[in-house]
Amino acid sequence: MSEAGQELVHLVWGKKAGPRGLADTIFCRWAQGFVFSDSESTALEQFEGGPCAVIAPVQAFLLKRLFTSEKSTWRDCPEEEQKNLLCHTLCDILEMACSDNSESYCLATWIRGKTTEETASISETALAVEELGFERFHALIHKRAFKSFPELKDAVWDQYSAWTNRFGVLLFLYSVILTKGIENIKNEIEDATEPLIDPVYGHGSQSLINLLLTGHAVSNVWDGDRECSGMKLLGIHKQATVGFLTLMESLRYCKVGSYLKSPKFPIWILGSETHLTVFFAK
Q: Which residue numbers delimit the Deubiquitinating enzyme MINDY-3/4 conserved domain (predicted)?
């Protein structure tokens, strides 16, 4: 893996990531795609604990995209419409993550010409079990850069099968990080040594959730920045498109600011001790 690739892995999984430092079960729990429910055609399914930190924000923005369309009902969504909804949603989040300091829009994709046979078996299901391990997965992906948003959109649609098959969630997470820029994320995270995904329990950090919700990987949920003992603590700087609430506030562990509590659309992610849930009003 390239030096930039190692930097990405360290940012997401921590510096001890690898065959001996990261439990196989943690990586496998994250190895799923964006899969629509058979019973609720606009709902994304989660199969194991952990990836809700990516799936929940995507679900929230998918609902926002759905409610601002001309579609009359959110309960009936044919397959082609699901594809368009998901791809538009992924593009919305990538566009939000592309800051002034970002070099270009980026996608994490399979290396062309090397993965046809190796990924054929994982293309049949969104949650295959043991085909690719941590090291092999990272050896088979690379970064593609796009100078314009229309180019990115075309590539997102072309890569639809990758989003919905195994590793789709990770490929998208890496795409957001690469688009935002690793250094830009490090400058926003309160503790740059803390990985975005906990290597022991597998849950996503608040910085990861905020990155996908607002385009900024800040570690706090209050409005604006604060100073504590001469240290600048970054918060949320403007009204979010979709919101965030947490049960931790009822226990007085934190206080969510109005930018996340009162979003532009009546869609919220609710954080509990172990999970993220999306709820909305229409």
A: 9-282
Contact 94, 105 (CB under 8 A): yes
Catalytic residue among 28, 52, 77, 98: 52
3-class DSSP assignment, residue 10: helix
- Domains contained in the chain, number: 1
Report yes or no: 180 and 217 within 8 Å, Cβ to Cβ. yes
Domain hosting 157: range is 3-280
Q: Which of 10, 88, 142, 275 is catalytic?
A: 275
198-201-202-203 Cα dihedral, nearest 10 degrees: -80
Per-residue pLDDT tens over the stretch 191-215: 888 999 998 899 999 999 999 999 9
- Rounded-to-integer distance, Cα 268 and Cα 84, Å: 22
Is there a contact between 229 and 243 (Cβ–Cβ < 8 Å)?
Answer: no
Q: What pTM value is reported for the model?
A: 0.91
Our answer to whether residue 52 is catalytic in this structure is yes
Active-site residue flag, 275: yes
